[in-house]
């Protein structure tokens, strides 16, 4: 039975309306929520955050735990069947296991995932297991200690590698390694990352750099296009076979005899827009109908003004109905992109 503790009583017209699925004018249905739970981070990845960090908002401008729960429950009523907790670094929140349990038990959502830099996993792995987490994506851009330090501005590679092993030994079934792949930066590690899939049942995902970084590194010739990554994989890796993967994994392969898979994610090239199923909510409670959208709606402000569940659902449905055909169109709208991916959650 779903608990509706956090849902206000239906008013007037609410009672007559069927619970609303999130669809748009281009016939897409949205059933995957990516929820950023903070903007803080214990790393300073050069393509994401400046050395001094991003200027944080006043604490009360971020969603409270109760507001997050209300949003989770509301979306579970709107057909969301998969949730990813992200950030900032989500494991800097002590209540992450509690939020996962809430989504699983009160909202009856089974597919719950976490994207993390992996540093604090040893502290939380048992609780994450018992909360029912289905999978973890760990961001790891280099297997060379000096380079890891240069990219993240912290000396923590060993900790991340040890924590990857902990996840492998846990009952959390899906493990993916996110590698933001950049020319002249870490592209010489292609074969080493592919090698990780030989004896480990995990997916290594090479991700295109996106233009959400204070330093605009993507303008400096480091951008490595997904099609070029795929071409280089095909040229350099023997026995690479196309296989099936998740919605986002536009290009997905397995090397003959290897346990894991290798994927390439065209997050900048935007080949995935026609199949988009993602809803994003930022840590300060803004609803984004596209990663590249500059038009956001504040769920936080509406909740704090006392909006009913139906009013919140209408806001979500209207925002998504008007979603642009693709991320290129969304980006052309006047306005500023968010300064850092830590505000959006990836
Ligand atoms: N701190 C967690 C982590 O690093 O996994 C979660 C938040 S992080 C913003 C989510 C993902 O976005 C990470 O995989 C990170 O590598 C990726 N990311 C951050 N900035 C990016 C950029 N400019 N281009 C592409 N991916 C980026
Ligand atoms: Fe932190 Fe993740 Fe951004 Fe790196 S990518 S600075 S780990 S939020």
Report on this model:
- With 346 residues, the protein is α/β, with parallel strands linked by helices.
- It has a single domain, classed as Alpha-Beta Barrel (TIM Barrel).
- The chain has ten helices and twelve strands.
- The chain has helices spanning 65-76, 96-106, 121-131, 145-152, 157-168, 190-195, 226-236, 299-304, 309-321, 327-332, and strands at residues 32-36, 82-86, 111-116, 135-139, 174-180, 203-207, 240-242, 251-255, 261-265, 278-281, 286-288, 297-298.
- A twelve-stranded mixed sheet has the order 7-8-9-6-5-4-3-2-1-10-11-12.
- α3 links the parallel β3 (111-116) and β4.
- The longest helix is centred in the C-terminal third of the chain and has 13 residues, at 309-321.
- It is globular and about 55 Å long.
- It starts with 31 loop residues before the first strand and ends in a 14-residue tail after the last helix.
- It binds S-adenosylmethionine (SAM) and iron/sulfur cluster (SF4).
- S-adenosylmethionine (SAM) binds next to β3 and β5.
């Amino acid at each position: 039975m779903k608990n509706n503790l956090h849902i206000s009583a239906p008013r007037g017209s609410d009672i007559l309306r069927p619970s609303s699925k999130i669809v748009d004018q281009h016939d897409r249905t949205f059933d995957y929520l990516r929820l950023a739970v903070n903007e803080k981070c214990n790393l300073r990845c050069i393509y994401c955050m400046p050395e001094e960090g991003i200027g944080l908002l006043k604490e009360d401008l971020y969603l409270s735990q109760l507001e997050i729960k209300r949003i989770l429950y509301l979306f579970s009523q709107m057909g969301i069947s998969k949730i990813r907790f992200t950030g900032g670094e989500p494991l800097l929140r002590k209540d992450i296991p509690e939020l996962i349990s809430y989504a699983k038990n009160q909202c009856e959502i089974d597919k719950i995932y976490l994207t993390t830099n992996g540093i604090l996993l040893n502290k939380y792995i048992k609780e994450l297991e018992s909360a029912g987490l289905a999978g973890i994506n760990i961001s790891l851009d280099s297997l060379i200690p000096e380079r890891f330090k240069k990219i993240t501005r912290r000396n923590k590679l060993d900790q991340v590698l040890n924590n990857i092993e902990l996840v492998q030994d846990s009952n959390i079934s899906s493990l993916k390694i996110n590698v933001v792949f950049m020319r002249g930066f870490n592209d010489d590690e292609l074969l080493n990352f592919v090698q990780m899939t030989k004896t480990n049942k995990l997916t290594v995902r090479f991700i295109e750099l996106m233009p959400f970084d204070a330093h605009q590194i993507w303008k400096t010739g480091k951008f490595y296009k997904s099609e070029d990554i795929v071409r280089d994989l095909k040229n350099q890796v023997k026995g690479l076979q196309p296989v099936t993967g998740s919605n986002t994994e536009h290009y997905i392969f397995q090397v003959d005899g290897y346990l894991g898979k290798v994927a390439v994610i065209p997050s900048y090239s935007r080949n995935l827009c026609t199949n988009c199923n993602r809803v994003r909510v930022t840590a300060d409670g803004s609803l984004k109908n596209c990663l590249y959208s500059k038009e956001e709606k504040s769920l936080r402000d509406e909740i704090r003004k006392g909006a009913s569940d139906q009013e919140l659902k209408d806001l979500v449905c209207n925002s998504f109905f008007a979603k642009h055909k693709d991320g290129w169109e969304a980006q052309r709208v006047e306005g500023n992109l968010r300064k850092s991916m830590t505000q959006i959650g990836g």
